[in-house]
């Protein structure tokens, strides 16, 4: 079973979103790469299905991730991002788009962050 990558492409004129699905086994690799790039540029994400990774393993990965992010801040800071950009990055510590990125009070999404 070949993996399928799905991504949303937004049309500015119609303000609509269409879902493009790419079969990794498609012989037209250039078309697949182009569609994948477009999904990243248009919506900033893509979703992979039929990848062969078990749901149990994925659930365990999410569980471990929740455990880490539930740690107090001082514990997460022990694993602060290194020179190879691996490790923990505190919220709002990076400015990926300095001209357009807005910093401020963000509420109403995600889980409550524990202080400390």
UniProtKB/TrEMBL annotation:
Task: Cite the InterPro entries for this sequence.
Answer: DIOX_N, IPNS-like_sf
Q: Which Gene3D superfamilies match?
A: B-lactam Antibiotic, Isopenicillin N Synthase, Chain (2.60.120.330)
Q: Highest taxon of the source?
A: Eukaryota
Keywords from the UniProt entry: Iron, Metal-binding, Oxidoreductase
Q: Which GO terms describe its molecular function?
A: metal ion binding; oxidoreductase activity
- Non-haem dioxygenase N-terminal domain span: 21-100
> Any keyword Iron?
yes
Q: What is this protein's name? A: Non-haem dioxygenase N-terminal domain-containing protein
Organism encoding this protein: Dendrobium nobile
The organism's taxonomy opens as:
Eukaryota, Viridiplantae, Streptophyta, Embryophyta, Tracheophyta
